[in-house]
Amino acid sequence: MLNPDQKMIRVPLAVEIVTGTRPCVRKCWRWYTLGIGGVKLQTWLVGGSRLTTVEAVRTFIEQRTNPTNEPQLRKPRVRKLSKQTREFLERELGIDPKDGE
C-alpha cells in the first residue's frame, strides 16, 4: 500500500538512491515483472511511466537478502533420449536408459 508521504520516482533512480549504483533498465524490468525467487518489486504504472518508491526498493532488497526466505529452485530440464541414443547405450555400453528416468 502506498503511503502518501512516499514520493514515486522512476525505478532505476529509486534503486540508485538505495544502492548507490544505477542498474540496467532490463534488470529493473525483470525485478518488477518476473521477480527473483518469488519476490517482485512493487511498482505502479502512472501516465505510461513505471514508478516505485525508495521504500519499495528497500523492502524488495530486504526480502531478497533475508535468510528466512527459502529459494525457489527451478526443476532441471530433462531431455528425452532419442531412439538412436537409447539403442547405442544398450548395445555398446550395456546401460539400460530407463534406469535413469
Chart the SSEs and their pairings:
Layout: E1 9-10, H1 11-19, H2 25-33, E2 44-46, E3 49-52, H3 54-65, H4 83-93
General description of the model:
The protein has a three-stranded antiparallel beta sheet. A hairpin with a 2-residue loop joins strand 2 and strand 3. It starts with 8 loop residues before the first strand and ends in an 8-residue tail after the last helix. The protein contains four helices and three strands; from the N terminus they run βααββαα. It has helices spanning 11-19, 25-33, 54-65, 83-93, and strands at 9-10, 44-46, 49-52. It is mainly alpha-helical and 101 residues long. It has a domain at 9-65. The chain is 41% helix and 9% strand.
Features:
101 residues, mainly alpha
Secondary structure category: mainly alpha
Kindly provide the radius of gyration, computed on alpha-carbon positions and rounded to a whole number of angstroms: 23 Å
Following the backbone from N to C, one meets helices and strands in this order, namely EHHEEHH
Distance between the termini: 47 Å
Residue windows where pLDDT falls under 50 for at least 5 positions: none
Q: What value does the average pLDDT take? A: 84
Helical residue percent band? 40-55%
Largest sheet: 3 strands, antiparallel
Strand content: 5-15%
The strands making up the biggest β-sheet line up spatially as: 1-3-2
The number of distinct β-strands equals: 3
In short:
This protein is mainly alpha-helical and 101 residues long.
